[in-house]
């Protein structure tokens, strides 16, 4: 199935996944990045009272078949849900835009980079392998790689307030997500260093779809093996029969 036929099927599903406060205008293939993307044009059905800002916006997601399969979004229904989530995020930014970012000075870039190194050091020993490539290794020898330049991080890490929450999620929930890559203005966990990022879980999603299609009810995701009476944590978080 080519991208046009795929998006046609997705569009039929997408409108039903959007909330009543959003209206789907169009779904189309788009450029603007080194990888193909899908663009969802939308408008706010009911802008906030007294709203003087924009009422139309766009949301994007990678479109290449290789990426859709790698991320577990090769089925139109799953890809439609992915786009619906991106539209919700874009609509939120439309009504609550972030403060206007200023271009950081060289001194701010250095300051924020040192903050990042200190913050990553809480996760383990930090080693800079190359410009924009940091490897963080914990006491058990497990590691993850951060792919971001000082200039890119300075845009994420502003402002630096020691009393505020981290500007980025540094918690590696899955060891398979071995890379933290700069993507669309933020750091995103991924199983690969290449862009666009691919989060862990595609095979589990396919297994679940297959189980649902077969009408099975004996498979699920557990933090522990449900057959273990002691309910010990299962670090593999494997799919298993209940």
Main pleated-sheet profile: 5 strands, mixed
Number of domains: 3
Q: Compute the separation of the termini in Å.
A: 36 Å
Q: Note the total helix count.
A: 6
What would you call the structural class? alpha+beta
What is the assembly state of the chains in this entry? single chain
* Low-pLDDT ranges: 235-242
Record field, number of beta strands: 10
Strand order of the largest sheet: 4-5-6-7-8
User: What would the average pLDDT be, to the nearest integer?
Assistant: 89
Using only C-alpha atoms, the radius of gyration works out to: 21 Å
Helical proportion, percent range: 25-40%
Sketch the topology as an H/E string, one letter per element.
Answer: HEEEHHHEEEHEEHEE
- Percentage of residues in DSSP E strands: 15-25%
Brief overview:
The protein has six helices and ten strands, in the order αβββαααβββαββαββ.
Structure write-up:
The chain has 242 residues and is α+β, with helices and mostly antiparallel strands. The protein folds into 3 domains: 3-95, no CATH class; 106-190, no CATH class; 202-241, no CATH class. The protein is 31% helix and 23% strand. It is built from 6 helices and 10 strands; from the N terminus they run αβββαααβββαββαββ. A 5-stranded mixed sheet has the order 4-5-6-7-8. Strands 1-2-3 form a 3-stranded antiparallel sheet, covered by helices on one side. A two-stranded antiparallel ribbon has the order 9-10. α1 packs across α3 (76-95). The longest helix is centred in the middle third of the chain and has 20 residues, at 76-95. Residues 228-242 have a biased composition (Basic and acidic residues). Residues 223-242 are annotated as: Disordered.
